[in-house]
Amino acid sequence: EAQVTQNPRYLITVTGKKLTVTCSQNMNHEYMSWYRQDPGLGLRQIYYSMNVEVTDKGDVPEGYKVSRKEKRNFPLILESPSPNQTSLYFCASSPLGDGYYEQYFGPGTRLTVT
Amino acid sequence: AQKVTQAQTEISVVEKEDVTLDCVYETRDTTYYLFWYKQPPSGELVFLIRRNSFDEQNEISGRYSWNFQKSTSSFNFTITASQVVDSAVYFCALSIPGPKSSYKLIFGSGTRLLVRP
To answer: CB 3.0-4.6 Å disulfide test: which of A11, B6, B40, B49 passes with B88?
Structure first.
């Protein structure tokens, strides 16, 4: 089944404790992206990747890191999480980064930072 | 500024009523794409439709229809004879050229639709 998977689905952590949210897609998509969803703000892009080893900042990259060493994986790293990073996170992928294709979203990761 | 505005934060209707979700966008680009996504209570995001900036033809898919008007920068979504299963948050999104030949997807804040039996 074609899908985007994220792990963990739920995470409660404390300020400053490094964490990684994994994202994997099995559709051989070139483009991958991370979003955060906050009430009243919709989804905002954190980072995106046009292909392996090609990543760039979205609208809200502060406090996050990403890497794209393999085509299928695009982990999101919070080196020192803070309470303002409490949010619902979505990973997404699409065949190309040309804007035409719809994005396929993972199930979401709900992160709480205390 | 390039943005998407969904002015209706929440809409509540009774089953079988028709309902229209508004979406207004701003962009300086001549080539862009517009999308609607649905987020049911289970939380996942589901693609509904895509429109490119050169195609103003309206589209109908079952009970769903979309009206794209470049003159008013709007891409509205109508559900005819709404059903309880239509209850969800609906997002309108604009895809525009970004840096380094990329494209950027800008979401509206979403409209929560509640369909009551």
So the answer is: B40
The first and second tokens of residue A32, run together, are: 């991958």
Please name the residues between 46 and 65 in chain B that touch chain A, using a CB distance below 8 Å: 47, 50, 52
Structural Rg of chain A based on CA atoms: 13
* Full pLDDT tens readout for chain B, 117 residues: 789 999 999 999 999 999 999 999 999 999 999 999 999 999 999 999 999 999 888 889 999 999 999 999 999 999 999 999 999 999 999 998 887 778 889 999 999 999 999
For the record, the structure tokens of B48 come out as 């509904």
Closest chain A C-alpha to B25 CA, distance in angstroms: 14
| Phi, psi angles (nearest 5°) of residue A40 | 80, -5
> A51 to chain B, minimum CA–CA distance in Å?
11
